Amino acid sequence: MADGHAGVRPVDELVARAAAGDAAAFHELYAKHRRQVASQLAFLVAREDVEDVLQDVFIQVHRSLKRFAGRSAFSTWLYRVTVHVAMKARRKKGRARLDLVEDLPDSVDPSPGPAEGALSVERQARVEALLQQLSPKKRAVLVMHDLRGMEAARIAEILDTNILTVRTRLFYARRELEALAQQDSALAEFFTPEPKGGTP
Amino acid sequence: MSHLSHERLEALAKDGGTDAHLDSCAECRGAVQRARASRRLLGSLTPYTLSEAGFQRVELRLKDAVQRPERPFWLWPALGFATALAVVAVLTLRPGAPAPAPQVPAVAAKALELSPWPQLTVARVERGGGLTAGQVMPVEATVSAEHAELFGPGVDVSLEQGEVRFGARAELERGLLTVLAAGESLRGGHAGPTYFAASDAEYRVHASGWVSVYRGTVLVGARADLSDAVRLTAPARYEGGKVLGFEPSDALSRPARGSVPWSMNELGAWETAELDGVRFTPPYSALLAEGPHQLALRKGGSGRTVTIDLRSPTTFQAPPLPLKESAPPSESELQALQRAFAAQRPRLAECYEKWLKATPQASGEAALELTIAPSGVVTAAKVTSEDLPAEARACLVRTSRKLVMPKLAEVQTVELPLVLKVKR
Predict the structure, then answer these.
(1) Cα–Cα distance measured from residue B29 to residue A163, given in angstroms and rounded to the nearest whole number
(2) Cα-flanking dihedrals φ and ψ of residue B42, to 5°?
């Protein structure tokens, strides 16, 4: 529909059909974007919650599609829904699922270190657990920026906020990450101060 | 004292290097080091995603969810205090007695659902080639992107139907499945009546006749199957792997108009299925006309035959496997079930929380009956209660089906008494 609104893009036909209540189109939309959304959910929510949250995301998409007017790309809109549902889901489940949090072992295998690329399974589990200790807002910014390599402006667009807020959250998220990692002997070495003026 | 701009700080963190400002500003130095460390730490994480089964579970649940009418928000009055209350669910496990067939709750829809087969077409091949052993004839087949995704690039396949067999290799490009078929052991034969599908593929074999390919079985490694079909316009005469000619036969006619391909994803707990007396082979695909059909399901000594009335595009859910007299779970299994259930109890409690929001005084008792497959998958769930409203019962059933239980020696049905009340 050409409504003359500046910046409004033509809505993808599949999206339009799904928004109009076409169940087949909605399932096609799910098939098309499910991997992308699941990938975006990684680290935003705990590993064991990805399935439930993925479902919540698409239920939210189903409810909100009618309001999607094409003012941003569908992928941006979907990412926004994903991040918001992920943040909400985490808060919701924080109350009821404490007994599902597993304790990590006290000891850790010594390798590989930070310079060796991918983390060991155990270290990865520790980092994932550590990320879940950050507030959802800070975690979202940190993951999008430092893990996915997104620019602050793009994150601001997805979170529907301003760039200064993103930078502030990023700053405090890194500080909290450092403080938490310093308490874990397996991760503290990542935050060992560099020699003055040095490059890692 | 001024500090580095955000852009400069991030550039130093991303690309390395240094800045004279860092020598004199401990704050900026710390910020750059933190940024580098954070990028390094998070950048070394291995991403994770859902398994294909996980995606399919979500898809099935979405079907259910999006078909339910939305509940007006005002039906869920905000009850702040409810969040502060703990839910007590008194849960004890006891093995249930083997249930007679009619009382067994329905198996999850995914397991035994007949649904229309997605479009599969096989394109006409170049004419003139032979299909004797060792020769290669290009055949193009297209599959829906949905199925192409299952295959992955470069998979070994073979086309098989009745007694006609072609060795082949498939290569996937942008959803196109290209099959290079090499006649391996072509033998004449009739296609079964349930294996046809609308397809236009044709093999020209020698110059003496045609073999029309309608559907067959494309075996992809040992993992995924895709039913295609082979239909001979005439039985082939062959000798030593070499087709000599064809003889017209009325038995090999086009399938009746109105038939559509149907598929059954898996048999669940059943071992074999027959449709109208013909074995319904993996992946349980058949071209069926609308109307009544006899579906016979068997496992070991158990069996059930039902009449299914297929009306496209409706789906049919096959009946569950009747439970045989089985040994009760061992003590260790019971304990494992107890632990698994206790760990996942909060998921059921969420149903109670929803009920509490609608009805502040909500409380009651229920019996939850779970049928658990040896894999630990909850294949059926039933809630019996005179206290709980339908909405809460449905929520418990939905949630129960998502529970992950420990592996068992055999199928077990367990009963879980639930006491839903607010702990004060």
Answers:
(1) 22
(2) -75, -30
What SS3 class is residue B112? coil
Domain limits for position A86: 1-96
Asked whether residue A37 is assigned to any structural domain, the reply reads yes
Q: Please check whether residue A112 lies inside any domain of the structure.
A: no
- Please answer yes or no on whether A174 and B50 come within 8 Å at the CB atom: no
Peptide bond into B261 cis (omega under 30): no
Cβ within 8 Å, pair A146-B16:
no
Sign of the four-CA dihedral B276, B281, B286, B291: positive
Query: Along the 424 residues of chain B, how does pLDDT read in single tens digits?
Result: 577 787 888 888 877 777 788 788 888 888 888 898 888 888 888 877 777 767 877 887 777 666 644 433 333 332 222 222 223 333 333 333 332 222 222 222 222 344 443 333 332 333 333 333 222 333 333 333 333 333 322 233 333 333 333 333 333 332 233 333 333 332 222 222 222 222 222 222 221 122 333 333 333 222 223 333 333 333 333 333 333 333 333 333 333 344 555 555 556 667 777 777 767 655 455 556 667 777 788 877 777 787 777 765 555 565 666 555 556 777 788 888 888 887 787 788 888 888 888 887 888 888 888 888 777 888 778 887 777 888 888 888 888 888 888 888 877 777 777 778 776 5
CB B8 within 8 A of CB B18: no
Among B36, B42, B49, select the one facing A200 at the smallest CB separation: B36
CB-based contact, B41 to chain A, within 8 Å: yes
Contact between B171 and B178 under an 8 Å Cβ cutoff? The reply is: yes
B94 touching A (Cβ < 8 Å): no
For residue B313, say if its preceding peptide bond is cis, omega within 30 degrees of 0. Answer: yes
CATH of the domain at A74: 1.10.1740.10
Assess contact for B105 and B381: CB atoms under 8 A.
yes
Q: Are residues A31 and A87 in the same domain?
A: yes
Same domain, A57 and A123: no
Domain count along chain A: 2
Q: Are residues A87 and A126 in the same domain?
A: no
Measured CA to CA, the distance from residue B295 to residue B318 in angstroms comes to 8
Q: Same domain for A7 and A89?
A: yes
> Measured between CA atoms, how close is A44 to chain B, in angstroms?
11
Do residues A91 and A123 both lie within one domain? no
Q: Which of A48, A81, A96 is the last residue of a domain?
A: A96
Q: Do A56 and A136 sit in the same domain of this protein?
A: no
Asked if the ipTM is above 0.90, the reply is no
- Asked if A80 and A11 sit in the same domain, the reply is yes
